[in-house]
Amino acid sequence: MDFTPRMQQILRHLLKATDYVKEQDLADSLGISKRTVQRELDGTDKALAALGLTLERKKKAGLKLSGTADAKEKLAASLSNTTAVDFTDKQQRRRYLLFALLRDRTPKKLFYYSQLLGVSEATAASDLEALAPWLQKNNLSVLKKQGYGVLLRGTEKDYREAMRRFISETTDASDFKEMHDAHEALAKAVMNVTDKGIYQLLNSHTIQRVYAVLQSLDEEKIAQFTDTAKIGLVIHIAIAVERVASGEVTASGSAETMLLRHDDDYQLACRILKAIEKEFVLTMPDVEISYLLLHIKGAKIRYSDTEAQSFPSGFDEASLFDLIDSMIEAFDPRQADSLRRDEEFVRGLFVHLQPTIVRLKNHLNIINPLLADIKSEYTDVFENVRRAAAVLSKALDTPVSEEEIGYLTMHFGAALERRKGSITEARRVSIGVVCASGFGLARLMMTRLKNKLPLSVDLHTYGKDELTPQVLKETDFFVSSLPLNIEKADVLRISPLMTPSELQRINIKIEEYAHLRKPRAAASAQDEDFLSVLDKTHLIAREMAVILRQYRHYTVPAAATFAQVVHTLAESAVSQEADTALLFDAIIRRERLNSQIFPDQGFALLHCRTDTVRQALFLTCSPAAGPFTNAYFHGIRTVLLLLMPNDEYRQVHTDVLGYISSSLINDDAFYQAVLSQDAKKIRCHLQRILKTYFESVLGL
């Protein structure tokens, strides 16, 4: 944990003391108030405990730092090695001054800030003036009054939004870019938001507890939030908890409550606050429901997971479509007609604008980790979208931030790329989709891409070790959820579920390669003769027969861990104990390489290529009663295991097992059968899809 400069001074003072020190004496010696000492010490117990130290508090006697001599030496060394804010750097100094204003809203003399920053009062005053534009964006201002001091002035709602904005701005955007849907990754990102700011504006333990409460509620609406929206919700609630706990908020006050109590989002806000009250033993004022409701209404959602939300106040379906029509016209009148005919674009913008309008009307901030990339790579589109955003700004009578313009650019940009793909003369582009085996994640990703990309692309799946010189020569570029370091290969790293921005990057590459002449391939070998075709058909038929005969469905306790589920399936797949151990290790290694848990789809797709089996196998597993209770399987109803033998027929195995895994996406009946956990139903649909595959091989 980073200690603020003031906290470092307090700890150094306590390290020197041999007995208890009164808080007032500490305050006097440091030239600060007693309350400031108390605020600085809040939340430090955990950090000190990690060093083997405790902060003893004794009534009337004061404070004392207790621990071994070695522990105190470690703390002293830590303090001496701490990189303090460089107050000679004007930007860093002013950012820290902003932090100090937000962290403590009690009146302070200008002298206090000059001492805190190590500058003259005139310089401190100049720095306060320089912060005015930043604060104004959140309707805040600095009140300077003779004999009273310096005080941050504004409503509670605006103050909280400023805190959220400060945290997002002092967090590296890469923390958000690398996020996927795994719960552990999201939890880590939540902590990064506060841990990587200048100093912690919020108590990290509060962040963790709030996140745990939201996880335990398991609300469908929250699951539809984007990852950054979930982080924003955690921060919003953590700020509210600390403000109420510190006595800064009373039951009085009001906020704009947009909907009646029967509204689903209102009820969700009530359920969340009730759980928070129980966790923190607090009574949250009624006004917090309004604050939270505004945040939920303005949260960015995953469009593929949800239908359109209820309309924001002042809009109905017709007026929202009218607004979209005006935005399209302002974007580019020459392309307006074609954009209006793009149903995917118009519908996506329709859904996107509903929470956007709520955010803008209520001055709620949003994080856009891709903003710098969007402005750099799509400069022209971004500038055109500014005109469209001006229409939105005029309709709402409020500014539209660049973060919001960035998200709008992604919608307009994707529509333009689709338009290019449909009207330009271009060659076909060959894309390789790569995962560890070539038949698990790669097949799921390929199926998703088929539904999103132009028809002018050829998609092929490969295992990581199947990228031969011939494959590299025939493929324009690769997409992979794994890190690939292949010389002279163009590889685009994406997440397994593919975000809209990643799809846009893929489309841009397709456009690039579609207009590049492809090197002429060497003459291919002669087509297989009739006997070789018969041999291959026989292999496929035998493969499918074994898969159907060997298919089994297993049940495990609802509380089973990931390791226990893997052991059950591994033990069922092979007969020898030694092979069970080898297969168990292979599946675990594959999961560590790239998670195969898909909570939004309701299944886990485990797979690997192994020497422990002689035939391809397909097995399924589900909890004996109720859903899985282990956090690793949160949202998972069925676990699937696909095993491929490591032999000379790997292409046959890849094709057959790959068809099974891709059917989870493009065959809804098979998907529903898998989620039903009914072995007979799964076997029936498995037989159907394999029959369909065999008929396609025979050309029937």
Question: Would you give an account of this structure?
Answer:
The longest helix is centred in the middle third of the chain and has 22 residues, at 402-423. A hairpin with a 3-residue loop joins β1 (54-58) and β2. The chain is an alpha/beta fold and 700 residues long. It has six domains: 5-80, Orthogonal Bundle (Arc Repressor Mutant, subunit A), CATH 1.10.10.10; 90-154, Winged helix-like DNA-binding domain superfamily/Winged helix DNA-binding domain (Arc Repressor Mutant, subunit A); 161-305, no CATH class; 317-422, PTS-regulatory domain, PRD (Orthogonal Bundle); 425-514, Response regulator (Rossmann fold), CATH 3.40.50.2300; 530-698, 3-Layer(aba) Sandwich (Mannitol-specific EII, Chain A), CATH 3.40.930. The radius of gyration is 30 Å and the shape is globular.
SSE diagram, text form:
Elements: H1 5-16, H2 23-30, H3 34-41, H4 45-50, E1 54-58, E2 62-66, H5 69-81, H6 90-103, H7 110-117, H8 121-130, H9 132-136, E3 141-145, E4 149-153, H10 156-169, H11 174-177, H12 183-195, H13 204-217, H14 220-223, H15 227-245, H16 264-280, H17 287-297, H18 317-331, H19 336-340, H20 343-361, H21 371-377, H22 379-396, H23 402-423, E5 429-435, H24 441-452, E6 457-463, H25 469-474, E7 477-480, E8 491-493, H26 500-514, H27 530-550, E9 552-556, H28 562-573, H29 577-593, E10 597-598, E11 603-610, E12 617-623, E13 638-645, H30 650-666, H31 668-676, H32 679-698
Helix pairs in contact: 2-3, 7-8, 10-15, 12-13, 12-15, 13-15, 13-16, 15-17, 16-17, 18-22, 20-23, 22-23, 23-26, 24-30, 27-32, 28-29, 30-31, 30-32, 31-32
